């Protein structure tokens, strides 16, 4: 078992901010509903729950068949006062000078709250749905060029031209400026190309939930690339989980096993096993490899939710009481994560529960550290899988 003494690890982030993902209607992986429309009342309630729950950011996802992330981000900005909307943007869908204009407009409307998460594209089939046939390595090269154009569009004092590998234009600008000087740019991915671009140029680098030691190695890698590129400000680390919580660890595991059976059944209806293929993106490949190796890691990381969905997106869970899950999140903060995305399977109810029961516990510990220069006993008192009973709960309800 790791040591949870009062010494704050040298790798620990002194801060943490929380991210959710905004859902547009009540459909979930537990209870899929037909149609992909926006339930406006539900959308309003969801954004209000994030504001009231103390979340710092919310991601507006993008897909070929989903609602437009710029429009939904703008709506979030107007329905909230503090939550920062993160626009998921694929470079193949929006010309970079237009993307810069749209993002700066959102930033002005929200008084500096806009963030952009650039998705280079992990699936050839999904990219082709909107006419993008570049191979994956080229897609990351395009993202690199896109970042340069975004930043120059926001800051150039005079018109400029650009003749690059993927984009060409003449005498653009000065562009429409953000609320302040710039807008944070996030990218993610686990391929060599993703690390190269993210380490050299991104403000934020995002990961899915992985075992602690493996994630620490990936953080070292992206920060090493940043230093080699001459950067003095390193990318912030964003890590994503799907917590399953209940009043006690035992009750949380009962819920987790119920959830995974329902998720597996619903996923099989949408994508029968015979039609399944290995995922193309490295992040999903890693998630499946971890799941194949073990279902349970560290204090509370559970991989079976990834296994039953073929790691289709962020899908690794943290299972336990609010105290156990908060302690597990702090383990990742100790590894260097300063942005933690938590989104559930019962989407609205989970967003409310996390805001009430998890965010305050994590923030309380970080406030203690700031005031005293030491860790409290919180992580040592809520051991999860580092204790004896937790593993019994994890297997007792398995069918």
Automatic annotation (TrEMBL):
The UniProt record lists the keyword Oxidoreductase: yes
Segments crossing the lipid bilayer: none
Keyword terms of this UniProt record: Flavoprotein, FMN, Monooxygenase, Oxidoreductase
InterPro entries, per database record: Luciferase-like_dom (IPR011251), Luciferase-like_sf (IPR036661), SsuD_RutA_monooxygenase (IPR050172)
Superkingdom of origin: Bacteria
The keyword Flavoprotein appears for this protein: yes
A family per Pfam: Bac_luciferase
Species of origin: Paractinoplanes ferrugineus
Domain Luciferase-like residue range list: 29-338
Entry-linked SUPFAM superfamilies: Bacterial luciferase-like
GO molecular function terms noted in the UniProt entry: monooxygenase activity; oxidoreductase activity, acting on paired donors, with incorporation or reduction of molecular oxygen
Full protein name: Luciferase-like domain-containing protein
